[in-house]
């Protein structure tokens, strides 16, 4: 029996992870955390019978404790509670599905507890890649990517039979989002509603806006470079509108391996939970003939400035990706509140990056402080 703890259980990846677990008889839920959504958590507690859960928002935890008193589940609260679930002794795998930098500390805690990490929180490697990868090595924690692109690369690398086989490039595919092909002038006028209509993937609001700006792909480039130990400039982005090829690896002899499948997060989630086994999965067969053709195009870095900024942050490294990420989170939040326009996202992120004096080797504390500093500075200047 594999015991799983899910951090961020009420979000898109969290709920899909539970749907996958329902189909796996040898996997059970040991712990769950949510930020505020106690309604969803209550239903999950009654269905999956975890040993222990945490409501990060203290104000909602007391009431929740009363509501689920009849189930016998242990209810923790606050960020410390989330970290306790990340290190839950009976958990074998920790799925880090929280959104944003809030995922960093609990992921570090899970790594130090030697857990197998099913990594679905991008910010962890974007903001603290070198630190987190070194810790994983030190504590022998295996990191299994859940993001579809990184899972695809990871799957392509499983072909290695122990011989010398050098990775030359990682080719991350990008759907291009809802605004692919638009001009800068058109982008200036796009609305929140349009940005939230993603052509292929059903995801949370933050990552859907990031897909529209292509910041999501930029964060994935930085993440892939840390996860697979490849320089940022050897991670290439290819726009592939159908989202059937989930990513590719080019080897030193120019052989390119691709992982394909229907655009459904349940496959990478299940693979991370059952690795190295592949299990049957209902209803996700790829019918290539139904697609007819697959297309590949270069990304437009002039129009989608966020991708260009992410490459720059990844190349410089140190504390700059943390600034990129924090400024982007604030901007996406403002865009969703309709306080700023679409192109202002990249303009404001660029401003914050330009004003930052880079720390080459930030500590975990430096990163958390810097993240907070950028947010506060931006909110003080808020119109
Ligand atoms: Mg992705």
Question: In words, what does this structure look like?
Answer:
This protein is of the alpha/beta class and 383 residues long. The protein folds into two domains: 2-145, 3-Layer(aba) Sandwich (Rossmann fold); 152-379, Rna Polymerase Sigma Factor, Chain: A (Orthogonal Bundle), CATH 1.10.1740.10. It is 48% helix and 15% strand. It has 17 helices and eleven strands. The protein has helices spanning 12-22, 38-48, 58-67, 78-86, 104-112, 122-139, 148-157, 184-188, 192-195, 205-213, 215-228, 266-274, 288-291, 305-316, 320-336, 342-354, 364-380, and strands at residues 2-7, 27-34, 52-55, 74-77, 93-96, 116-119, 143-145, 167-174, 235-239, 245-251, 256-260. The protein is globular and about 55 Å long. The mean pLDDT is 95. It binds magnesium ion. Magnesium ion binds next to helix 7.
Keywords:
383 residues; alpha/beta; Rossmann fold; Rna Polymerase Sigma Factor, Chain: A; 2 domains; seven-stranded parallel sheet; four-stranded mixed sheet; 17 helices; 48% helix
